[in-house]
Amino acid sequence: MARGIVKATLAFGAIAAIGAGIAMTGAGAAPSVAPERPTASRGATVSPAVFRHSVHSLPQLGPSSRHEFKKPRSWEPELEPSFQKTPPANALQPAAPTTEPAAAAPAPGTGGDSFAGSFLGLDFATWGAGWPPDTNGDVGPAHYVQAVNTSIGIFRKTDGVRLAAFTFNSLWGGTGTACDDNNQGDPTVTYDPIGDHWFVADFAFTGSGSKPPYYECIAVSRTGDPVNGGWWFYAVRADDASHPWFPDYPKMGIWPDGLYMTANMFQGASTYREVRGWAFNRTDLESGAPLRYVVADTNTATYFSMLPSNMRTASGAPPAGRPNLFVSESQSVYGLEVFKFHADYSGSGSTFTGPTNVSHVTYAVAASTVPSPGSSLDSLAERLMNQAQYTNIDGVESLWVNHSVHCCGTSTGPTGIHWLQLDVTGGTIGTPIQQQIYPGVSDGLHRWMGSLAVDQKGDMALGYSVSSATLNPDIRYAGRFATDPSGTLPQTETTMLPGVTRGTQTTYTRWGDYSAMTLDPNGCDFWYTTEYYSVTGTNWQTRIGSFRLNPNCATTGTQSQTITFGALASKTYGDADFTVTATASSGLPVSFSATDNCTVSGNTVHLTGAGSCTITASQAGDATYAPAPDVSQTFTIAQASQTISFGPLADKTFGDPDFPVNATASSGLPVSFAAAGNCTVSGNTVHLTGVGSCTITASQGGNSNYTPAASVSQTFEIAQGTGTRLTTSGAMEGQIQFLAGSWVNGGFHVKLTQSNVSPVTVQLSGTVLVPVHCSVGGPVAGTISVPVSASFTIPAGSTSYSPTNDQRSILGWMGAVQAPELCGASAQMYNTEGATLDASVVSSAHAGLLSFQFHYRVPVAKNKPDTNCTDAGDPNHNTACQGKWSTATSI
């Protein structure tokens, strides 16, 4: 949808170049730059989301918002050229007007399908998102698929019935990208006659589009049936860190090894940067495998609006290994720029070379708009129009292109179309075989927004819009037989709308952006789609029509053939690649395609996951034989088993630092660990919590491709460490008075002088020694020993551990004994001087010191209940029956 670039003096989004440089003027213009060397690199693989249902299950509703797609967009500058376009020294001159036979091209509806004329495509009122519609479409064996901004329609070829229509946003989902609900336009539709799959794509972004990320959203039919066969969704990030630019005006072409794409890359609000190209692996796309692709950067603003070459098997496939050809109209001279793109999807052998410069006739650059009875309509001037068609007929390889210019040998004549056939035989970029600026003589009508295709005999059909200040826009086409005089269209202009009332567009200037002439898989019929108006206003319509240009073009033969393709044995995921074999009764070669958890390259099958795989054998027929009915064989792919390797673990000593454990699964899937005994495990890091033993168990739960592995356990012993002696005393506040049988408790808390990144385990064992007197001030009658023993962990990032913060609760205290009869039965016993903690401490490695305090108490004192240690007459004093916390001792 990005708008035009012109040479000469037209102030219309122009870029001009002299020699190897380019100059742009305007507020956002970049400085003049010389072309940099093109580069090619592999992109990160993209895994698809999958839609397994019929598109009938989607809402058959159009988009909810509409707007004009402005020219230029808010992020595109209005660049003005610095130079006039100049002819090269060896440029060909326009031929004198040729007198052509006055035989009209066949009317629409003269092709191999039974519908009469043309039929309605999608319209603005129900399916459009704005102006222009960006009408695009392609044809397969049974369906015609059309796309506009921002909806898709699927039509039955035999009668033009619309089988389904829905928006890109309704179709997409599950990728977690802007493709799921922010499709923005510039749609393309491409049918692959080799693999019998459909590609429907547009771009997506969030917000205004002034900032990345930007995506190209490529939907791929899982079978040849675009209605019921399901779709894969590949959300391809079109920008990257080094090229954070918007990919405008994307164009597609199918090739034996891939789906090729180009786009004009714009930065921010003002700067055109380069043409970028992509090669998407065709086998990956058509099997639902993770997508491998190669990105080519021209690294200069010298080139603009390239097209990838597009092949049809009916008009000749390229030889094996032939690079795709990228072509653009030069911005500085009258000629084409042709690049060769070789994609190495698995290695580093990708190349993007060129350009080869090809001179052609000079012309006057078209005006930026053409007149109509309503608004003036955009012409897009001289950029090459959709698509660059490749043919290989009778040993001659060609590339066919067209674009808009001033016609009729003057710089003031109406807009016309310059079409050209370029010789590329043997992979060598030659000179034009033929070309024409059409029409040769002005009739006052403007012809623009062209698209062409070539049938299996080498006949060419050219479709376009026609308008003038008094003629409402019409859809017309003209053509030539391969035997016609070179550089002519003797199959003269025919309307695709005979008897159809037409209006014109008001309010907006945006028109078309492109149209689509495509070749039926039968090799003879042409299909064309573009926009028009049935009533003057802003509700555009589109039309889809078919015709056979040459009545002597014969489709595939009528003799029947069958395919023999035996059942395939079940497999297990991980099994080696294997070959499949099928034969056609005709003796013609059989091709294979794959769906679900496998891919096929030639006749070699590769398993991509557990589940099932369907291999379909096809034979497309030839001049003698009709296509054979496809034969499919489905086989199951079982989950693979897996084992865990986990070696013995060495014994440890309590206090040893944390350590890692490692185990591997034969599947390569990650292994998890669990711990039991005197240890814990986090991730694969083991922490010792005490003396005894520890058991670590390694597990792998499997996935869709692998069954769970048998768990493996390893046990090791944890020895007592050499402890550090800790002795500390605590004073008594007042006195403790108690009887034999009272419970005497002991406890402690500990702090770290600094936090640690890992947990710190501490084990303390010892006694709290409480001296006892039979009278206040009397001699020591004996000592009560309260055993204190506990292991605990100070969490990572923490500095303290306290078993209890409630001094009246015994919960969490480390030891308790009942007081013996040290002063006789029922005699009072007293403690006035406090107690001593005598213990051994073992801890794991840590930073900083461990600081200990201990505490003891006798719950029953002065006949008070255990839950109330308050001294009689002093309700605010709660320490009469307990010792004070000791001073801190650090080790």
Q: How would you characterize the overall build of this protein?
A:
The chain is mainly beta and 891 residues long. Helices cover 2% and strands 43% of the residues. The chain contains three helices and 66 strands. The strands form 18 sheets. An eight-stranded mixed beta sheet has the order 24-23-22-21-27-28-29-30, with no helix packed on it. Strands 3-20-19-18-17 form a five-stranded antiparallel beta sheet. β52 and β53 form a beta hairpin. It is elongated and about 135 Å long. Mean pLDDT is 84; it is low at 1-35, 70-83, 88-101, 804-812 and 860-880.
Which key phrases capture this entry?
eight-stranded mixed sheet, 891 residues, five-stranded antiparallel sheet, 2% helix, mainly beta, 3 helices
Mean of residue pLDDT?
Answer: 84
CA distance, first residue to last residue: 75 Å
Number of helices: 3
**Gross geometry:** elongated
Question: How does the helix and strand content classify structurally?
Answer: mainly beta
How many β strands by DSSP? 66
Q: Give the biggest beta sheet.
A: 8 strands, mixed
Helix content: under 10%
Provide the low-confidence segments as ranges. Answer: 1-35, 70-83, 88-101, 804-812, 860-880
Going across the major beta sheet, what is the strand order?
24-23-22-21-27-28-29-30
Strand residue content: 35-45%
Radius of gyration: 41 Å
